[in-house]
C-alpha cells in the first residue's frame, strides 16, 4: 500500500476501509484480501473482505438515506453530482494511477477512463431536472389522468474490473440523480478505485448512506451478491459482467421481483467490405480491439473481411500491431498492459492453440509472456468453428475471417448468442443502413471504432443483457411510473364540458 500511496498527490484518496453510511469501515469479520498489480504480481495493499452482515449494514444505511434523499429537489441532487464531477476531474491523475496499478491498463487509457467516468456525473447532474410525468387526455369530463415518475429505491450496483471507475458512475450517477441510494459491489481486483470515488463523493456532499461501497474477495462474492439479490429492501440490481454470472443474479432476483439491468458479454463482429476506407478501418480496429489489451465488452472480437481486400487489410493490420508496446501501464510509451489474471491469459492461449490446430495461421505474435502478458496476435484463415470465433476472447487477439457476400457477413455476424456491439466499414450508404438494421446487436458503429458516450444508450440484445445505460434513457432504469386518476366530482354548472 505504501508504494501506491507514494505515487499519489493526495494519499487520502486511499482510505483503509469500505464505505458504509458515510464512514470508511472494516469488514465485521475483520478479514481482508490482497489486491495485486497484474503487471508484476506484487501486492498493492489490502481491502475489507466483507460478507452478508456487511451487506445488511450497507442496505440499512442506504434505505434510511433514501427516505430523505428522494425528497431533495432535483436541482440539489444535480448540484451534488456536479460537485462530484468537478472533484473527479481535479483528481484525474491520482485516479488514473490507482486504476492502472489495479487493472493494468496503460496510464493514458486510465486518464481517458476517468474523464469518461466523470462525464456520467456531469450528464446526469443535468438530467436530474428532466424527469417528467405526463397529463393524459381523460376518458371523461369527470376525471383527470396523470403519470408521475418516482425513484425505484435502494439499488445494488455490481461492477467489473475492466472499467473500474466508469462502470460505477454509469450506474450510480443516474440512480442518485433519480433520488435512489446505492450499494456498490466493485470487482475484487479493483476495489481501490471504488474507494477513491467514495472519498470524492463524501467531499462532494453526497449524504451519508446515499452512496455505499461493499468490497469483498472472489471467495465472498457469491455471498455478497446473493445477499443483495435476496434483500427485499433492495429494489433494483444493475450488473455488468459475464453472461453466466448475470443469469445467476437474474434468477436470484426473481424471488423478490427486482428490477434488473444487465450488461453482459459480447462477441462483436467487425465487418470490412471491399469498398471500405481501409486506413480508417485499421484505425477503428486498433482503437476497438486493443483498448485495455482487448479486455472490453464491446471490443472487436471477430474480424470479418471481404475477399477483395482481405490480403491488403491483413498487411495493414500487422503493420499497426507491430508498433504496439507491451509493458507496465505506468511506464512511458506502454500501449498494451497485462491481462487481469492467469485465467485471462490462459483463455487467450487456448484460443490461439485451438485456431492453429484447426488451420489458422499465426502471422504475428501468439506467445504468452510472464506476469499475465500476452503478445498482440494476428491469426488469418479463421473460420466460425474456432474458439476465437465462438467465444469472447477478452485479450489482444485479432482473428481475421474471410467472407464473400453481404448476406454471408450478416449471417456469420449474427451466429452467436451475444448481441452487444457490432462494427461495419463501408462507403456505400445503402449498405450501411441495410447491414446495420440486419445485425442483431444493441449498438452498431458504422465507420467508427469507438462508440461509447455518456449521451448514447449503451446495452445489448439476446444474451448480452437487458436495459440501457447512459443517455436520457439511462435514468429511466431507476424510476417507477405511477398512474394517478383524479375524480373531479360533478362539473360546475354553466361551464362548457371537456371534449
UniProtKB/TrEMBL annotation:
Active site annotation, chain numbering: 263
Localization per Swiss-Prot or TrEMBL: Mitochondrion
CDD domains in the cross-refs: ALDH_F5_SSADH_GabD
Coiled coil location: none
A GO cellular component entry from the record: mitochondrion
The protein's assembly and partners: Homotetramer.
Protein name (record): Succinate-semialdehyde dehydrogenase
Organism of provenance: Guillardia theta (strain CCMP2712)
